[in-house]
Amino acid sequence: MTRIDRTAQAIIARIGNVDLSQPRVDKDAVASALTAHLEELALQCRPTRWFHSAAAGYGYVFHLARNAAWTAADARQASAASAAVKHCLNSADYVAWIDAWDSAWSAARGAGDGDVWNAAWQAQQRAAWAEARSEAEHAAWIAARSTIENAIRGAACLNGSARVNHPVVTKLASMWLPMVDAFEAGLWLYWITSHELVCVPHPTISIVGSQLRSGEGFAVDWPDGEVRSPEPTPRPRGDRLLTAASLLGRRP
Description:
- This protein is an alpha+beta fold and 252 residues long.
- It has one domain (6-246).
- The chain is 52% helix and 8% strand.
- It has helices at residues 6-16, 27-40, 54-67, 75-88, 91-108, 114-131, 135-142, 147-163, 167-176, 178-184, and strands at residues 48-50, 145-146, 187-192, 197-201, 220-221, 227-228.
- Strands 1-4-3-2 form a four-stranded mixed sheet, sandwiched between helices. A two-stranded antiparallel sheet has the order 5-6.
- It starts with 5 loop residues before the first helix and ends in a 24-residue tail after the last strand.
């Protein structure tokens, strides 16, 4: 497997050290990181609108979708930047880039408890999907962005750029790296709409014994008390701090 570049390894360590059992949010830092992300997407800066929970965030974007044609403002630009890597690199460089990308992604999986994060994410996705009633609302559901996944993309792309020196590779890394700052600053879930950034902070997640539960509630708990209890039960590991390193189990 390809060696992990030192700079990419440092990014992976930053992501893995985020303490999800005691979440914090720095809204100014999140706004700054999202602005940097928008600049790399060649999108205009727009204000942030925060919601206290995933359910509240989904409810708001579903409301937008019911009252206007829904557009994920970032989808076209992000897809084009990713496609450019394959189109602009020769076959050997593309294979080398993918190998470096995969190596960094695997390294970011850390403790290998991907079932924990997947359960937390899928629980909120299932609940929101059940509330989506129209094609537009389903489009808004699809447009939800996971900050942890996009932070991991940043680390993987950075490792790829250390292996393959090409402007399109550098561009892709620059596009996703701001999400590392956003994740560290407390952003869990977001949407980029045509006029604003809809943001949801980290929930509280911890494991006690063999159950994916917090001390006073279920696995995924926002400040207002909303709880999403994932169905899959993770492997028993005993009481421990739950950091992002134990949640990086799903490749973007």
